[in-house]
């Protein structure tokens, strides 16, 4: 029954339609905003038509046998479009040796540019030079000079054959650079006599040494210039001491391989069996850990010399291994760190 505060059925129906219309408008505005955000991150579908030339992206549509090496092109084609099946799929006119299905998604294709190729002349010249690889070999005279018909004589001063010929400029050799880990350090080279060098660097010593360099007395003192350290992995924590020492040597040699390969290296260790573990030829087989480290170090064994130094005297390495390092949240402690001349 109708009473005060409640309208008629027509009034209530009109109010419901009005609220429903507001809901539709709010929903349409939200969908338009979502579509705008979606379209801003994605490209529109390419509009292909029959006869257009397209390339097949091998990263999205692998073709067996197309990628024979790392230097080959990552696209195959171009091939013409035989039929447009839908805005999302097309059928290509492929040669029979490919033996793949001719239907492709437009996301797997790249349209061949219709603009003028700015490098067309360079490509045509490269193809011409490649096709002209079969050249006539000029006869060689008795004095070793090359004779060619119709060519101007060589100028002994400039080495050119005439005004029409030009010398191809050769690319200059790249200047040698230091390894990346030594780019920010001041380096210098010095030379001493072989006997003095052997006396100075043959055996470790913590005391100063005086060397005669070009008639001048130079005092040299052994000190660490590089320090490498990292935490042990859960697997390495369960290793026995010989395995852990050998793993440490193999890891450190790999980190400094750009400095140590091909030069005499003296390994000073407080673990005396370390050298004999690499040179042993006994019938007892080693475990996989030692075998792997031996495989890394055996090619450089002729340049390695092991010197045993008791732990109570090996204070420089022990002191460095107990340094308090800064926490670097961007690098895992298992990956290792290094200190060169006091700089991280």
TrEMBL record:
- Give the Tf2-1-like SH3-like domain ranges: 51-110
Asked if the Swiss-Prot or TrEMBL record annotates the protein with the keyword rRNA processing, the reply is no
Q: State if Transferase is listed as a keyword.
A: yes
Record GO terms (molecular function): endonuclease activity; hydrolase activity; RNA-directed DNA polymerase activity
A Pfam family found in this protein is SH3_Tf2-1
Source superkingdom:
Eukaryota
Annotated region Disordered: the residues are: 130-184
Give the keywords, sorted. Endonuclease, Hydrolase, Nuclease, Nucleotidyltransferase, RNA-directed DNA polymerase, Transferase
What InterPro entries does UniProt report for this protein, alphabetically?
A: DNA/RNA_pol_sf (IPR043502), Retrovirus_Pol_polyprotein (IPR050951), RT_RNaseH (IPR041373), SH3_Tf2-1 (IPR056924)
Domain Reverse transcriptase RNase H-like span(s) in chain numbering? 218-278
Q: What is this protein called?
A: Reverse transcriptase RNase H-like domain-containing protein
């Amino acid at each position: 029954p109708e009473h005060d505060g409640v309208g008629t059925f027509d009034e209530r129906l009109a109010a419901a339609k009005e609220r429903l219309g507001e809901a539709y408008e709010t929903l349409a505005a939200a969908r338009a905003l979502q579509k705008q955000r979606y379209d801003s991150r994605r490209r529109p579908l390419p509009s292909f038509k029959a006869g257009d030339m397209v390339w097949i992206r091998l990263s999205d549509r692998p073709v067996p046998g197309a990628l024979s090496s790392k230097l080959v092109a990552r696209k195959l084609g171009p091939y013409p479009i035989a039929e447009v099946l839908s805005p999302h799929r097309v059928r290509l006119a492929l040669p029979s040796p490919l033996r793949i299905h001719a239907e492709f998604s437009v996301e797997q294709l790249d349209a061949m540019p219709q603009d003028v190729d700015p490098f067309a002349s360079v490509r045509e010249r490269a193809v011409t030079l490649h096709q002209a690889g079969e050249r006539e070999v000029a006869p060689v005279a008795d004095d070793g000079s090359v004779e060619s018909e119709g060519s101007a004589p060589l100028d002994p001063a400039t080495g050119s054959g005439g005004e029409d010929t030009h010398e191809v400029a050769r690319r200059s050799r790249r200047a040698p650079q230091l390894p990346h880990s030594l780019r920010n350090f001041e380096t210098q080279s010095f030379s001493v006599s072989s006997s003095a060098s052997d006396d100075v660097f043959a055996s470790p010593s913590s005391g100063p040494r005086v060397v005669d360099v070009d008639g001048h007395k130079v005092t040299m003192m052994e000190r660490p210039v590089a320090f490498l350290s990292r935490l042990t992995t859960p697997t390495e924590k369960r290793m026995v001491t010989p395995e852990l020492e050998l793993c440490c040597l193999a890891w450190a040699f790999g980190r400094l391989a750009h400095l140590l390969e091909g030069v005499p290296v003296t390994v000073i260790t407080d673990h005396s069996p370390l050298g004999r573990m690499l040179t042993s030829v006994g019938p007892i087989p080693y475990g996989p850990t030692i075998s792997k480290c031996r495989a890394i170090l055996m090619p450089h064994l002729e340049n390695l010399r092991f010197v045993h130094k008791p732990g109570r005297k090996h204070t420089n390495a022990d002191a460095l291994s107990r340094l308090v390092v800064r926490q670097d949240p961007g690098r895992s402690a298992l990956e290792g760190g290094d200190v060169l001349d006091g700089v991280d």
